[in-house]
């Protein structure tokens, strides 16, 4: 009797190609009816048939290399463009990737996912190093097994990257926090400035708050900077920021180093009309729609774009080049950028819907015209 096959299994099988023996086995012979078994079935089929990817451009034919991304917040929309970037690079190069890790920044779950990828003989790893000790041994194990490893988005602590990864692909986190503070100092020279952080100690955002703190310290003067923990849950974080604003009615500045807290600052500034009550500056990170709307309305002055698309695209490219050259091309350290989005340029972000910013799924050419801004 013919049984229905879960669409996720079909999608997994399609990645093997329509002529693949493994595809037929996966759909007809294995009996994998659940989405939870689709990835395992795909890995098994790939390992049994060892498919060869077609030659791409001037590159040779290669095995169907699979690269594994270990992420700390696997379902967070911030990483939607990063996953599109990885997908686009894989399409370009004839390889594949898996997105795994932890949904709630549980380091133990990330370590388990890393170990699973190593034991599954992944062809390369991209790892968000949000802890400076937990990933040292797994990364060494991967390298000892001949599996190249790069970090992305987070790279341990400023004084200890925490692993022997080959390179880091992502924003300079401490530097971006310092720039956040420096930008605020152009608008406020005295008074109380608060910096909100969702998960203190987490090494994808702690270096930012440290950098902001240092910017105010270096400036001297009359600014008092206070770091305040919010919450990874945006709703809980909003309540904390709301209460802090009510308890500190004379704030001169409100900054944040994560997307959720940045969004919540914009909502709180609007709710209490803080612009009319002496608030001189408000800013933060990332490009979620609520943040962009707050910039347009004037409730936030700026946010920082760290180009997450590149944090997915470049690790795939670098791991591929490492593999195809036998290690002769080693991944370079890559800062994915520090771009301020303000009222002057926010409209383009709001009106241009693309996979490069995670706001659309379709593949399209984004036209532009006119001069390119420069100093």
Q: Which bin fits the share of residues in helices?
A: 40-55%
Question: Using only CA atoms, what is the Rg?
Answer: 23 Å
What spatial order of strands do you see in the largest sheet? Answer: 4-3-5-6-7-13
Mean pLDDT score: 88
Compute the separation of the termini in Å: 70 Å
Uncertain regions spanning at least 5 consecutive residues = 1-12, 14-49
- Report the principal-axis shape: globular
Features:
about 375 residues, alpha/beta, 13 helices, about 40% helix, globular
Question: How are the elements arranged and paired?
Answer:
Layout: H1 7-14, H2 21-29, H3 38-49, E1 52-53, E2 62-63, E3 66-71, H4 80-93, E4 96-101, H5 107-119, E5 124-129, H6 136-144, E6 149-155, E7 168-170, H7 173-185, E8 190-197, H8 206-219, E9 222-229, H9 234-247, E10 253-256, H10 259-271, E11 281-285, H11 289-297, E12 302-305, H12 308-324, E13 334-335, E14 339-342, H13 346-351
Parallel strand pairs: 3-4, 3-5, 5-6, 6-7, 7-13, 8-9, 8-10, 10-11, 11-12
Antiparallel strand pairs: 1-2, 12-14
Helix pairs in contact: 1-2, 1-3, 2-3, 4-12, 5-6, 7-8, 9-10, 10-11
What can be said about this structure in brief?
The chain is of the alpha/beta class. The chain has helices at residues 7-14, 21-29, 38-49, 80-93, 107-119, 136-144, 173-185, 206-219, 234-247, 259-271, 289-297, 308-324, 346-351, and strands at 52-53, 62-63, 66-71, 96-101, 124-129, 149-155, 168-170, 190-197, 222-229, 253-256, 281-285, 302-305, 334-335, 339-342. Strands 4-3-5-6-7-13 form a six-stranded parallel β-sheet. A six-stranded mixed β-sheet has the order 9-8-10-11-12-14, with helices on both faces. A two-stranded antiparallel sheet has the order 1-2.
């Amino acid at each position: 009797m013919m049984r229905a096959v879960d669409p996720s299994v079909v999608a997994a099988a399609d990645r093997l190609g329509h002529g693949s023996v493994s595809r037929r086995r996966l759909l007809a012979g294995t009996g994998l009816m659940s989405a939870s078994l689709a990835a395992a079935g795909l890995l098994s089929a790939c390992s049994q048939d060892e498919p060869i990817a077609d030659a791409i451009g001037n590159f040779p034919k290669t095995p169907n290399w699979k690269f594994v991304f270990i992420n700390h917040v696997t379902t967070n929309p911030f990483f939607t463009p990063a996953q599109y970037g990885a997908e686009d690079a894989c399409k370009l190069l004839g390889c594949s990737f898996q997105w795994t890790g932890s949904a709630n920044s549980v380091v133990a779950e990330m370590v388990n996912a890393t170990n699973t990828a190593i034991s599954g003989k992944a062809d390369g790893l991209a790892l968000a190093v949000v802890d400076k000790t937990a990933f040292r041994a797994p990364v060494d194990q991967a390298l000892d097994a001949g599996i190249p490893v790069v970090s992305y988005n987070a790279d341990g602590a400023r004084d200890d990257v925490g692993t022997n990864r080959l390179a880091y692909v992502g924003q300079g986190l401490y530097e971006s926090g310092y720039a956040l503070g420096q930008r605020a100092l152009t608008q406020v020279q005295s008074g109380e400035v608060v910096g909100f952080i969702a998960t203190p100690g987490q090494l994808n955002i702690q270096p930012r708050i440290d950098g902001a703190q240092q910017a105010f310290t270096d400036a001297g003067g009359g600014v008092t900077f206070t770091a305040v923990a919010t919450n990874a849950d945006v709703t809980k974080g909003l309540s904390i920021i709301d209460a802090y604003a009510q308890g500190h009615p004379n704030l001169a500045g409100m900054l944040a180093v994560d997307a959720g807290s940045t969004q919540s600052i914009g909502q709180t500034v609007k709710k209490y009309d803080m612009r009319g009550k002496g608030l001189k500056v408000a800013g933060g990170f990332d490009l979620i729609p609520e943040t962009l709307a707050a910039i347009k309305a004037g409730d936030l002055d700026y946010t920082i774009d760290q180009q997450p698309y590149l944090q997915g695209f470049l690790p795939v490219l670098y791991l591929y080049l490492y593999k195809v050259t036998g290690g002769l091309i080693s991944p370079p350290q890559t800062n994915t950028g520090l771009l301020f989005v303000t009222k002057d340029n926010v409209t383009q972000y709001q009106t241009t819907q693309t996979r490069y910013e995670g706001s659309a799924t379709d593949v399209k050419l984004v036209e532009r015209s006119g001069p390119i801004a420069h100093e």
